[in-house]
Amino acid sequence: MTKTANSGGLPLPARVNNEGPKVLRAGFIPLVDASILIAAAEFGFARKEGLTLDLVKDVSWANVRDRLAFRQFDIAHMLSPMPVASMLGLGSNPSPTITPFSLGRGGNAITLSARLFERMRKDAGLPETAGALDNARALAKTLAAMKAREEPLLTFGVTYPFSSHNYEFRYWLAAGGIDPDKDVKLVVVPPPMTSDALAAGAIDGFCVGAPWNMVASERGLGRIVAAKQDIWPSAPEKVIGMRPDWAHSHPETVSRLIVALDAAARWCDRSDNHDALAAALADPRYIAAPVNIIRRVLAGEFNLDARSNRRVIPDYFQFHCGFANYPRPSHALWIYSQMIRWGQSETSLNKARAATSAYRPDLYRAALGDNNAPVDADIRVEGGEENDRFMDGRIFDPAELPDYVAGFAVRSTLPFFSGNDET
Question: Least packed by Cβ within 10 Å: which of 289, 293, 294, 379?
Answer without folding.
Answer: 379
